[in-house]
Design a protein that fits this description.
The complex is a heterotetramer, with 2 copies of chain A (about 300 residues) and 2 copies of chain B (about 260 residues). Helix content of chain A is about 30%, strand content about 20%. Chain A is globular and about 55 Å long. The chains are: A alpha/beta (about 300), B alpha/beta (about 260). The structure holds flavin-adenine dinucleotide (2 copies), flavin mononucleotide (2 copies) and FE2/S2 (inorganic) cluster (2 copies). Chains A, C: Catalyzes the conversion of dihydroorotate to orotate with NAD(+) as electron acceptor.
């Protein structure tokens, strides 16, 4: 049974990675997950300098999902390169680094800093709804997305994967802008912007008022967008949004994703990534599928 | 820190006060590892609620392989737990967090409201001269169990029992003294205790609460502001679930 | 305890109505719900002529919600006026008619046909993601929305309520376009476009491939958009999207809705509208709220 | 048509074949109203699944106030039902749909696969000369119960019992005759029976299936194409949940 997939010229031993921000840099999940058994570990968004993130409360549960407004707290690229990358390498993991920034030069600085690091892909988060500057501003405007993609691509040593926001009228327009800017692959979806009100205290549950919605509740939107994007441009896709089981992963791949990220599911079940991988294998066995690549985008 | 994720069985459950439930869970591997001040993540069986509920460990019985939790019905998740019966099962993960650092110095063990249960196992295990101070609204759940362990002082909001007011009122009224404060309870109480400890040159270990997602330090959902830069993210935030929930009060920036 | 609300100059005995398309024209729910006890019955989208709708399967369950691609099957305005309006009036219900069309003239024809009918409000569905022509085309383009609003408003005898699609980058831009076009109120949200794949049959679950997602899964998006719109324009709002309980309704009203519609919840519980109403009353009693209007948009 | 929405209690549940379960529900008001060919909407307790599952009524016992359903585990919802035990409760609504119109004419009662259960109560209640024809893959659940009522012919896909092939093969092999066909089963079988009935000048009442949301005619989710314009929406669609699930085969447009 072949589980290996190739995305943007890089080989991954299987299609399962972690959704940025839900898995730290892997260390926290090591008691539950063999990091080397994953296709890759996608790390929490990292910026050129440490970020404090938003005030608390930062997370809230919603029906079949959750909201977060962590605000990209991160240790900055220096500590990340010194501590997290070596640790992941030592554990035998392939690495996708998620990059965030407030301005184009922030992103470029991080990308340049990673040039000689043993990193497979750079996932560029231009779709975080929880920070005031940068982030989503690039992710909701095709021209801005094109420009920043081009700027990052010019400096990146590793293939880049622009991560798209679902909070747009037409996701295919954004996909094409990233493609035109030189992105090597696309990652979708980031979170849907949502809000929860505590009616007893008459307050927003999140200090940030709004947060990004994730989890199985949003899966139908994610599957739809992956399908649309896979038909609108030629780039390979890392699909995510609500994957809880192997069957969810298969669905995302049938819609057109070459790899899948498991996010919120980790909070529900710390072994979720492994369960997803096992579920994929079980599906392949049941239907006598020799090569996982057969199912990618298999329906039109 | 080792932690376990497993299906646990409810061994016993009873209501001990209005809206307050006392549940014993069979979770042998968790019971073997747990320390006072740690907590467990309890998952709902109803799949519309995905995030685990953090609940402090109130009792540890490694011999029987059980952990005890005492919790208040606050919303849908704790409501679901409260409807479970002996024999029912649920997913749990734990023990989580750091727990209290037990010192061999004269101690004041303080619990306020639903922050009282986590102090029981500490009161039992702490090998030092100790007084327990409990702050209630009115009704005094678990009080008798504390009294089996050591001297207990009470504060109630309406003054119907013990001192009228807060735990600090009780400490002052009864002249309770010690070198180390161990405390869990609402934020205003902890803030007041931090000030009280500083004023009196005491150490204070306080157990904090915040909304959580992962429960194990990965999501950065549950931070509190810290005076020093955190080893994990290199900013003035520290993760309550992983580096806490118990902190030296001097390290915490209260908002 | 006052539950009466006024929206676009019309009084409703309470803020609870039904979400269009989930309650037929009321008759099917009469065994469970006293139609006169509702603030209003909002009827299934009606066009100038009968529409066949889409092929089946038309509905699919999703995590905490569902997809539908009914495609606005409806009997046309003639039969609607002859049968459904008189029936609703006989039952003592206030009526909000949801109007659909493929072109501006379709909408105008329906609106004119309703001029002398005992209808309180006209809810204009320019946001149905499940029909090829019309519908969403108007709902995702502010200029088109402005134009059609103006055209309908010019002919409408009753106040009009433009119903907005959540499948847009900036809901406030759409709200302002409808306001500028003369809409008397706004209704939001319609469904989020989603997709579900049957991985065992390797087929789309819905014949239409995509469908509109509704139910509690989408509530955080709905609350966020209601909140944003209530701060972006002056129009009163009928809020909907995932309301299952009285507490959900209160949340939507705190976010800024004057009335709330109960949709998918009816499928889960045919008495949902009544339970929502009872839940609102219970909340008001618990917090000693004399007048429901106090809570509308009560948080900033 | 009167229908009830209520909490029903599982009185009995047992597995009767691979993946096939037989459940008896205490639902007195529903049992008092139900007719053969109607169905009930069964709601999941797990709240991530909101839509009711339509399941045909296999047995009606108004004296005991129970309804019986026999169902196959097809996905998450039926899996949840299959794990329930006597004493557990769930929400149900019903009886729904029109049911069969029982005629006093020589009848062939036909069930295919999981379309077999709804024919049992009809076989019991139909007061006419009748033969039952059942199409199975291999294993023949419920066969004995039908045999208690009248003559039963079988078809199996592999020919391990009865005729090899479909119910039509069995009808032909055994020369089964009648004036009215009552049938439930997979679409290809119903389509073939519709053609067979037309060819032989018979009436055919067929019970259809479609994905449903409301179950009561409000959402227009579950239509089938009809030859005549539907009274409800004035187009060539008719609602399976409300105007069906049983239709005169002549009225149905097969795709
Ligand atoms: C470290 C720690 C230990 C705790 N120990 C106890 C205990 O021993 N006994 C006890 O009764 N309670 C305890 N709590 C509070 C308890 O976690 C909440 O009351 C519980 O999560 C509420 O869940 P719910 O589904 O009933 O409420 P809902 O309001 O429906 O919950 C919705 C979401 O918000 C979260 N949430 C709501 N209130 C809180 C809160 N106060 N703290 C953290 N998350 C919250 C829930 O976990 C859930 O994700 C503790 C909290 C923490 C952080
Ligand atoms: C009128 C009617 C009578 C039925 N009677 C029986 C019966 O007596 N015994 C029996 O085993 N099955 C019967 N079915 C089929 C049964 O409804 C489905 O097998 C069941 O809904 C599957 O639910 P699930 O959650 O296990 O599957 P999932 O695939 O997880 O369900 C997902 C969604 O799709 C719907 N769905 C899936 N398959 C079907 C289907 N075949 N028909 C309609 N909806 C479906 C579910 O209701 C649910 O909303 C009947 C269907 C209809 C329409
Ligand atoms: C707590 C949390 C933190 C996140 N942080 C990031 C981040 O740093 N960078 C990023 O690109 N996406 C981030 N995301 C979005 C996820 O990577 C993912 O796109 C989204 O959650 C959808 O997947 P899911 O439904 O499987 O969680 C975060 C999501 C959550 C829930
Ligand atoms: C089966 C179904 C049919 C619908 N038909 C219509 C319609 O005809 N016109 C319309 O404006 N909205 C229609 N909607 C959208 C709902 O009115 C509502 O906006 C949406 O479902 C969100 O609310 P809910 O989550 O409470 O269902 C339909 C929704 C469903 C589920
Ligand atoms: S809850 Fe995730 S870091 Fe604490
Ligand atoms: S299921 Fe709603 S009309 Fe049949």
């Amino acid at each position: 049974m072949n589980l290996e997939v190739t995305l943007a010229g890089k080989k991954f031993k299987n299609p399962v990675t972690t959704a940025s921000g839900t898995f730290g840099s892997g260390a926290e999940y090591e008691q539950f997950v063999d990091l080397a058994a994953l296709g890759a570990v996608t790390t929490k968004g990292v910026a050129n300098v440490p970020w404090e993130g938003n005030p608390t409360p930062r997370v809230a549960e919603t029906y079949g999902g959750m909201l977060n407004a962590v605000g990209l707290q991160n240790p900055g690229i220096d500590l990340f390169c010194k501590r997290d990358i070596p640790h992941l390498k030592e554990k035998g993991a392939s690495i996708i680094v998620n990059v965030c920034g407030r301005s184009t030069s922030d992103y470029v600085e991080v990308v340049e800093r990673l040039a000689d690091e043993p990193v497979d892909l750079l996932e560029i988060n231009v779709s975080c709804p929880n920070v005031k500057e940068g982030g989503i501003a690039f992710g909701q405007n095709p021209d801005a997305l094109y420009e920043i993609t081009k700027a990052i691509k010019a400096k990146a040593k590793q293939p880049i994967v622009m991560k798209l926001s679902p909070n747009v009228t037409d996701i295919t327009e954004m996909a094409r802008a990233a493609e035109a800017g030189g992105s090597d692959a696309l990652s979708l979806i980031n979170t849907l912007t949502g809000m929860k009100i505590d009616i007893h205290r008459r307050k927003f549950v999140l200090a940030n008022k709004t947060g990004g919605m994730s989890g199985p509740a949003i899966k139908p939107v994610a599957v739809r967008m992956v399908y649309q994007v896979s038909h609108a441009c030629k780039l390979p896709i890392i699909g995510m949004g609500g994957i809880l089981t192997g069957e969810d992963a298969i669905e995302m791949m049938m819609a057109g994703a070459t790899m899948v990220s498991v996010g919120t599911a980790n909070f529900h079940n710390p072994r979720a990534t492994m369960d997803v991988l096992d579920g994929i294998k079980a599906y392949m066995e049941r239907y006598h599928i020799e090569d996982i690549n057969e199912i990618i985008g298999c329906i039109d | 820190m080792e932690m376990i994720k497993e299906t646990a069985k409810v061994v016993r459950q009873q209501q001990i006060d209005e809206g307050i439930f006392d549940m014993e869970l069979s979770f042998p591997k968790g019971a073997a590892l747990a320390k006072p001040g740690q907590f467990i993540a309890m998952y709902c069986n109803d799949k519309s609620k995905l995030l685990p509920r953090p609940i402090s460990i109130c009792g540890i019985n490694p011999t029987e392989g059980t952990l005890r939790v005492v919790y208040r019905v606050a919303g849908e998740g704790t409501k679901e737990f409260s409807e479970m019966k002996a024999g029912d099962t649920l997913e749990v993960m734990g023990p989580l967090g750091n727990g209290f650092t037990m010192k061999n110095e004269k101690a004041i063990i303080i619990g306020g409201g639903i922050g009282i249960p986590p102090m029981l196992e500490l009161a039992k295990q702490l090998d030092a001269e100790k007084t327990v101070v409990l702050g209630y609204r009115t009704s005094t759940f678990l009080k008798e169990e504390f009294e089996e362990v050591c001297d207990v002082k009470i504060a109630t909001e309406d003054g119907s029992q013990g001192a009228k007011g807060t735990v600090i009122d009780a400490i002052e009224k009864y002249g309770v003294e010690g070198k180390v404060i161990y405390a869990c309870g609402p934020m205003p109480m902890l803030k007041a205790l931090a000030a009280y400890a500083e004023e009196h040159g005491m150490e204070a270990q306080i157990s904090l609460e915040e909304r959580m997602a992962c429960g194990i330090g990965a999501c950065l959902g549950c931070i509190c502001k810290s005076k020093t830069k955190d080893h994990h993210t290199n900013v003035n935030n520290t993760r309550i679930c992983k580096d806490g929930p118990v902190f030296d009060a001097k390290e915490v920036v209260f908002s």
